[in-house]
């Protein structure tokens, strides 16, 4: 009479289906992946390492590009201010001189061109930040930035918004957050001097540290879906430079 081996039959059936093979173990047995699956996993790990290396190189190139653009923005602001001073001098002191009035008109045209160049440079910098953020998709969904909550650590006048990830490109409306308020961000970008996050309020970008990196401006609390925002004060974008704001906080 033929002897029936359940273990041998089970192993043969597993091999025929190209699934995990059960081998003897201490209690429940151990499982060994088929060689083809093991090779696929090794190839996937190698590809992931290659993509991470490429991303690091692209991030470094983007950081260098942002640094040069930041210097260009600073130079444009300086030229802008100098033109304003010349226009004011010519307008106030030389109103009766046709020559100077013509010079003032030419300076106004140059000022308009400078402001247009500044706007275009700012848009290019923001576009570069968006491209950098989109590269996170190569690392899988677990590495996506999503929407995250940050708590402000700076008191007094808090932290001001920037139109782009650049300290000199400041939004002067005075509506940035102040400790212990929180904001929700949907993008992160490495500017010339610090890492910035973009607030979903649409008011602009906020630096996570000061320019030297010695002072933290925000603390990361986690993903929006993991943080109970009812336990925190969400920044409402009120003007902190207005004395009425401080009076309302004291009352």
Write up this protein.
This protein is an alpha+beta fold and 251 residues long. It is 46% helix and 14% strand. The protein is built from four helices and seven strands; from the N terminus they run αββααβββββα. It has helices spanning 6-16, 35-93, 98-134, 243-250, and strands spanning 21-23, 30-32, 148-152, 182-190, 195-199, 205-207, 218-223. Strands 6-5-4-3-7 form a five-stranded antiparallel β-sheet. The radius of gyration is 29 Å and the shape is flat.
Topology summary:
Elements: H1 6-16, E1 21-23, E2 30-32, H2 35-93, H3 98-134, E3 148-152, E4 182-190, E5 195-199, E6 205-207, E7 218-223, H4 243-250
Antiparallel strand pairs: 1-2, 3-4, 3-7, 4-5, 5-6
Contiguous low-pLDDT stretches (5 residues minimum) are 1-18, 244-251
Radius of gyration: 29 Å
Portion in helices:
40-55%
Write down how many β-strands occur, each being a DSSP E stretch of 2 or more residues.
7
Q: What about the largest sheet?
A: 5 strands, antiparallel
Discrete helix count: 4
The H-and-E topology, N to C, reads as: HEEHHEEEEEH
Strand content: 5-15%
The helix-and-strand class reads: alpha+beta
What structural keywords apply?
251 residues; alpha+beta; five-stranded antiparallel sheet; two-stranded antiparallel ribbon; 4 helices; disordered N terminus; disordered C terminus
Question: Quick gist of this model?
Answer:
The protein has 251 residues and is α+β, with helices and mostly antiparallel strands. It is built from four helices and seven strands.
